[in-house]
Amino acid sequence: MGPENETSVEEFLLLGLSQDTRTQILLFLVFLVIYLLTILGNLLIIILTFADSRLHTPMYFFLRNLSFTDLCLSTSVVPQALFHFLAQRKTISFLGCVMQVTVSLLMGCSECALLAVMSYDRYMAVCKPLHYSTIMTQQVCLQLALGSWASGALVALVDMSVAFSLPYRGQIVVSHYFCELPALLKVASVDTYSTEMAIFAMGVVILLAPVSLVLISYWNIISTVIQMQSGEGRLKVFSTCGSHLIVVVLFYGSAIFNYMQPNSKTKKA
């Protein structure tokens, strides 16, 4: 492809969720309330788990990391979306798009790994309670958290590299309200099959591998719960694992549905 056929893209035009003014104002208010609640909730979790010494346990350590990723993930997307709900021309610079994709990928992928690590922590607490304190030490918890962040950074780096190495020409109109890889691939000016396969492969690593660990952990947890004689013990296990399991199902389910379906387009010469 010759240089005369390529142009430097300085910005992307985002179509948003609606072009109707009243709808955009309504969406602005809805997104603003949800965002403020998200920020407040995650900040409270982080502050409380730091301030209360009784919450200095592995479970709350991982929960603190999870809250931080959720805080950063929502902040990387929602403020820009709120601004665009009130703006006439919904554009984002190329560098801004790169940063948004990078941060959202890093936080989203790290969250995938952290949820799997939390399921392993619950497995150790329920199935091996006598060895829990000796296995889940502060050093081990730190290593697991760093491993989660490192895996998220690796996947984000690979996905970002392959996506933004593609040529984008002309006025780029993205059918989305923020920069997201599937939407960006649709507006690239070449066939994106190999790029989609690379992203799909990284998705297998960061989604299906943690899901497998979650399934194995909860299979063992459920087997242990069934063998319990005490109804109070069962209730305690469900109270500590139930909320995590709900988050796992919602997060992994939506992520797999959105990102594990390759949909390449072939450009005609």
Kindly describe this structure.
The structure is a single chain. The protein is mainly α. The protein has one domain (12-259): Up-down Bundle (Rhopdopsin 7-helix transmembrane proteins), CATH 1.20.1070. It has 8 helices and 3 strands, in the order βααβαααβααα. A 3-stranded mixed β-sheet has the order 2-1-3. The longest helix has 35 residues, at 193-227. The protein is globular and about 65 Å long. It starts with 10 loop residues before the first strand and ends in a 10-residue tail after the last helix. The model is unreliable at 1-7 and 264-269 (pLDDT under 50).
SSE inventory with pairings:
Layout: E1 11-14, H1 21-51, H2 58-86, E2 91-93, H3 94-127, H4 132-135, H5 138-164, E3 172-174, H6 181-186, H7 193-227, H8 231-259
Parallel strand pairs: 1-3
Antiparallel strand pairs: 1-2
Helix pairs in contact: 1-2, 2-3, 3-5, 3-7, 3-8, 5-7, 7-8
Summarize the entry for a quick read.
The protein is mainly α and 269 residues long. Helices cover 72% and strands 4% of the residues.
Question: How are helices and strands ordered from N to C?
Answer: EHHEHHHEHHH
Q: Kindly state the mean pLDDT as a whole number?
A: 84
N-to-C CA distance: 12 Å
CATH topology: Rhopdopsin 7-helix transmembrane proteins
Q: If you compute it from the alpha carbons, what radius of gyration comes out, rounded to the nearest whole angstrom?
A: 21 Å
Number of contiguous helices: 8
